[in-house]
Amino acid sequence: MKKHKWEKAWEDNKFSIKTLTPSVLVSQYEKLFERGDLILDVGCGNGRNSIYLASKGYKLDCFDVADLGWQEKIPLSTLKNINFKKSDILEYNYKVSQYKAIIVTRVIQYLSLVELAFLFEKIKYGLKPHGFLLLSYTTKGGIFDRKEIGGSTYLYQIEEIKELLRKIFRN
């Protein structure tokens, strides 16, 4: 299988994700989950959120367009709670009404508005009733500005995101 540009850049040391600390969003809202809940980590990158939650006893499905090999470096007791797949964000097969929470951190800036709407529809489809979407994004900084990795990035205003979410989750 051909390597994705993120994998190539990772191997060539053009970028690194130095933290294994979970995102603030995940650590703040973790209290809403119960041990054994199934959670999906969309665009999991170096696995920091998945590793953290799996170590606490949550079950994780996670995927990223690039396999950075982080699964090989964590204890088996944590790994047994993680199901990682290499997949494109728009092609991943979301389980119907299975996820207590879906985490999407710092990936939507790579999606056009049409792709973003498609992703939100898939998320709606995958969440359990009364499930949670934990969403954060950035418009600049860190690895997201690396020209050698390339790729389109989109600058969404928070109101655009809110309106799209309202429209999709209304029903």
Brief overview, please?
The chain is of the alpha/beta class. The protein has 6 helices and 5 strands, in the order ααβαβαββαβα.
Write structural notes for this entry.
With about 170 residues, the chain is α/β, with parallel strands linked by helices. About 30% of the residues lie in helices and about 20% in strands. It has six helices and five strands. The protein has helices spanning about 5-10, 25-30, 50-55, 75-80, 115-125, 160-170, and strands spanning about 40, 60-65, 80-85, 100-105, 125-135. The chain has a five-stranded parallel sheet with strand order 3-2-1-4-5. α4 links the parallel β2 and β3.
Order of helices and strands: HHEHEHEEHEH
Structural class: alpha/beta
The chain-level mean pLDDT equals 84
Strand content: 15-25%
**Strand order in space, largest sheet:** 3-2-1-4-5
Low-confidence segments, ≥5 residues, pLDDT <50?
none
* Largest sheet properties: 5 strands, parallel
Calculate the terminal CA-CA distance, rounded to whole Å.
Answer: 39 Å
* Total strands: 5
**Count of DSSP helices?**
6
Radius of gyration: 16 Å
Shape: globular
Oligomeric state as shown? single chain
What is the helix content?
Answer: 25-40%
